[in-house]
């Protein structure tokens, strides 16, 4: 998810943020994560993923690692990685 202040940020800043780089998701070797698309509106963009097998109802102890790539083949990382620990 990417958020911005569309009233304060310049059009050029917003276009640069929406460059549509690809965000890959990794949980661990037991899960396959597939990006299924992105959508957004003023001030917000969200990404969707299918995780196989399904995650349990209780995700405590899981880590979700999002890595930004310049391509959908995950061959050109930009250097940006965000990890969410549950």
Report on this model:
By secondary structure, the protein is mainly beta. The protein has one domain (20-85). 8% of the residues lie in helices and 49% in strands. It is built from 1 helix and 6 strands. It has one helix at residues 11-17; strands spanning 2-3, 22-26, 32-41, 44-52, 63-69, 77-85. The chain has a 3-stranded antiparallel beta sheet with strand order 1-4-3, with no helix packed on it. Strands 2-5-6 form a 3-stranded antiparallel beta sheet, with no helix packed on it. The longest helix has 7 residues, at 11-17. It is globular, with a radius of gyration of 14 Å. The two termini are 17 Å apart. The model has no long low-confidence stretch (mean pLDDT 82).
Q: N-to-C terminal Cα separation, in Å?
A: 17 Å
Describe the largest sheet.
3 strands, antiparallel
Please tally the β strands and state the result: 6
Give the number of helices: 1
Poorly predicted tracts of residues: none
Largest sheet, order of strands side by side? 1-4-3
Strand content: over 45%
Global morphology: globular
Radius of gyration: 14 Å
On the 0 to 100 scale, the average pLDDT is 82
Q: Share of helix among residues?
A: under 10%
Category from helices, strands and their pairing: mainly beta
The tally of structural domains comes to 1
> What is the chain-wise order of helices and strands?
EHEEEEE
